[in-house]
Design a protein that fits this description.
- Chain B: Keywords: Membrane, Transmembrane, Transmembrane helix.
- Chain B: This is DUF2975 domain-containing protein.
- Chain B: It holds the Pfam family DUF2975.
- The structure holds 2 protein chains of 2 kinds.
- By secondary structure, chain A is mainly alpha-helical.
- Chain A is globular and about 40 Å long.
- Chain B has one domain.
- Chain B is elongated and about 70 Å long.
- Classes of the chains: A mainly alpha, B mainly alpha.
């Protein structure tokens, strides 16, 4: 999929661990792992809002579009 | 889910006795077609057939194949019901089995009706087309039933994708 999730980079920048973020967001670490690894098929606005609020960033910092090469 | 248990019990009962019948028919037909010299008339789909020539033998073999295919589709249906009992509704096997059941019903229906048509043409020297009304034993109903199973398979495939998408929405 050409949509890349840069959650790892933002977590590293904020020096925060995945389980801390999951705990603050109120989701399971398994679900956060699905999001981080790019296995997720969709993301809710409420989830995006929570990530942006906790990591103090913009949606564009987490989600990136990279054109697929044929 | 009492209906599911009843369905499983009915299918198991039918499967068990059909299997015994199929084994008996296989043994008898092998003896009747290839070993024995006695010409006992057999009634297949309302027609008296004696296996003394090739077209008669072919129609008997085709009917045995049709019966075995039907039995295999019942076996697959039992497998589907077992998946349903385990609450594995959108299992890939269920989708595969539904599609296969549909194909088997269509193929067996075609084999049965085509051989009957060829037999009529060769032995009775006439072609007849009958459209049964108010019966489940009709060619068109069999084809429709086969297609219905294939459509069910497609629906289950769509539902499986929707379920996956729903589960992978964070």
């Amino acid at each position: 999929m050409p949509i890349i999730i840069n959650l790892d980079i933002m977590l590293a920048k904020r020096k925060m661990r995945s389980n801390e973020l999951a705990e603050q967001m109120g989701i399971t670490t398994a679900n956060l792992s699905i999001l981080k690894t790019g296995k997720a098929k969709a993301i809710r606005f409420s989830t995006l809002e929570a990530i942006c609020e906790i990591l103090d960033c913009q949606p564009g910092d987490i989600i990136e579009y990279i054109k697929e090469t044929q | 889910m009492k209906k599911l248990q009843f369905l499983k019990a009915t299918l198991d009962f039918f499967w068990f006795f059909s299997l015994i019948g199929a084994i008996g028919i296989l043994i008898f037909s092998t003896f009747y077609l290839f070993v024995s010299d006695i010409d006992i008339p057999i009634k297949i789909q309302g027609q008296q057939i004696t296996a003394n020539d090739l077209p008669s033998k072919l129609i008997i073999i085709a009917n045995i194949i049709t019966g075995l295919l039907f039995l295999f589709s019942i076996h697959l249906l039992r497998k589907v019901v077992v998946h349903f009992q385990k609450r594995e509704i959108f299992n890939p096997d269920v989708i595969k089995y539904f599609n296969l059941i549909g194909k088997i019903i269509i193929i067996s229906s075609l084999i049965s009706n085509l051989t009957e048509l060829i037999f009529d043409l060769l032995k009775q020297e006439h072609i007849s087309l009958s459209l049964d009304f108010g019966s489940y034993d009709s060619f068109l109903i069999s084809i429709s039933l086969g297609l219905f199973f294939m459509v069910i398979s497609e629906i289950f495939k769509i539902a499986k994708n929707m379920k996956e998408e729903n589960e992978l929405t964070i």
